[in-house]
Specification:
With about 325 residues, this protein is of the alpha+beta class. The protein has 3 domains: about 90 residues, GIY-YIG endonuclease; about 140 residues, no CATH class; about 60 residues, Ubiquitin-like (UB roll) (Roll), CATH 3.10.20. It is about 40% helix and about 20% strand. A 4-stranded mixed β-sheet has the order 9-8-7-10. Strands 2-1-3 form a 3-stranded antiparallel β-sheet. Helix 5 packs antiparallel against helix 7 and helix 8 packs antiparallel against helix 9. The protein starts with a helix and ends with a strand. The model has no long low-confidence stretch (mean pLDDT about 85).
């Protein structure tokens, strides 16, 4: 610890705020928040045991500055903004290389379509997911399109230049809004049914798939009938994920953090529309070795951009 840092620590206030650690080149290497700035910053330099990562960070701190705030909530907001701005190397803590798919629909479009994406955004579209743990997002998309005859093309509609229906219409997999075979209002009704299905009401979809499977089997079109049978099996998988004690409109994340005193593991269970979507495990770090800070860092990193927040987040720590 150099003399400049030592003198600055003595002058630290006891108010809430944000502290910014700088490297020898003046670059921001870590941003943190504190209820009491003096106590938190002192921990880096005067506490005993430090993890390897924390010790490495402290060795690289050449200077720091702080910004006082009116409350800890204000400090959290400022911390989040500064981390987004500077992207400090020691604030990156989530280690999960997997990206899970979502279903996306732009309801403002005249004739909306469902598409698969792995990059949800705050773009006004509606997202369903993430899909994980044995439920194929492509199968779910196919169930929607098979049952409600929604378009899968990327054409901008309406489009007066389109005069012929595509193959999907002729094989009974699209209602052909492109050529006016279905009105905007009728198509919107089908979209609403698809949204209802994704929100947990799968009875209608099951009836449609079962009827089509039987009809095709009676016509001797067994290969096509098998396709619908497989869709019904996937639908059964989706139904098995329902938690009967939960409202079907509940979106909930359950987060648990455990530590052996050195390393932290966060487990997250994801429920959407009353269904268990699956779970994720993360390795996280806390520069001061504080489990509350580790959890705070995780929540900031996971939800800080405001994308796809659930209705409720349940924690195993206060």
């Amino acid at each position: 610890m150099n003399e400049i840092i030592e003198q600055k620590i003595k002058m630290l206030p006891t108010s809430p705020g944000v502290y910014v650690m700088l490297g020898s080149d003046g670059q921001v290497i870590y941003v943190g928040k504190a209820k009491v700035l003096k106590n938190r910053v002192k921990q880096y330099f005067y506490s005993g045991f430090k993890t390897e990562k924390v010790a490495a960070m402290v060795m690289n701190i050449a200077d720091f500055y702080y910004i006082m705030t009116n409350s800890e909530i204000d400090a959290l907001s400022l911390e989040n903004n500064l981390i987004k701005k500077y992207k400090p190397r020691y604030n990156i803590l989530l280690k999960d290389d997997k990206t899970y798919p979502y279903l996306k629909v732009k309801l403002k479009d005249p004739f909306p379509r469902f598409e698969v994406t792995r990059k949800p955004k705050n773009d006004g579209a509606k997202y369903f997911g993430p899909f994980m743990g044995g439920v194929s997002v492509k199968d779910v998309a196919e169930i929607i399109n098979e049952c409600y005859l929604l378009r899968t093309c990327t054409q901008v509609l309406p489009n007066s230049k389109i005069t012929r229906e595509c193959l999907n219409y002729h094989i009974g997999r699209c209602s052909a809004p492109c050529t006016g075979r279905i009105s905007k209002a009728e198509y919107r009704e089908q979209v609403e049914k698809a949204l209802d299905f994704l929100s947990g009401n799968d009875e209608t979809a099951e009836e449609i798939l079962t009827e089509r499977m039987r009809s095709l089997a009676e016509e001797g079109k067994f290969e096509l009938a098998i396709n619908f049978r497989d869709k019904l099996k996937m639908l059964e998988k989706i139904k098995e994920r329902k938690i009967t004690d939960l409202n079907r409109f509940v979106d909930l994340d359950v987060i648990s953090i455990v530590t052996d005193g050195i390393y932290y593991t966060v487990s997250m269970l994801i429920l959407r529309s009353g269904r268990m979507q699956g779970g994720k495990n993360y390795s996280v770090s806390a520069p001061t070795g504080d489990i509350a800070e580790a959890l705070s860092e995780f929540i900031r990193a996971c939800y800080g951009d405001g994308k796809l927040l659930p209705h409720e987040i349940v924690l195993n720590k206060e």
